[in-house]
Amino acid sequence: VEAVHLIADGKAPRIPQPKEGATYEGIQKKENAEISWDQPAAALHNWIRGHDKVPGAWATIDGQVVTFYGSSLLDASVPAGQELAIKGASRPGLITKNGLVIFGNDGKMVLVRNLQFEDGKMIPASKYFSADETATLELTEEEKKMAEDIR
């Protein structure tokens, strides 16, 4: 009651909160979310997971910013895959059937499921090398006849 009366009378003490020990983190910005590769796999996973969805943890691949989404720690033997050079990483990543495998400085692995390019296009990481391929639709003779009848 006394505190309420002090506030109402404008006589309550005003003590600024010290910055030491404060837990508030400001709004994260994309430029601050770049992945630092000299960390163990658990730290890489936590960094990616902590920036998922906004602003998105990113790295430079083939000269463009690629954002990583959907990480999980991978506790298995190194899977077969196609190597992918990542700027700053001491070891290339691997594009596998399950996604992009990246390595921490402790040799352990993190699996990243989705990648987003600068233009906003998001793909499953496992399709990285096939992202530019376009599938052509080939119709059978019966389907061609049906298409002509519909036309």
TrEMBL record:
InterPro entries: Formyl_trans_C, Formyl_trans_C_sf, Formyl_transferase-like_C_sf
Record-linked CDD domains: FDH_Hydrolase_C
Domain Formyl transferase C-terminal positions: 29-130
Coiled coil: none
Domain of life where this protein originates: Eukaryota
GO molecular function: catalytic activity
Name recorded for this polypeptide: AL1L2 dehydrogenase
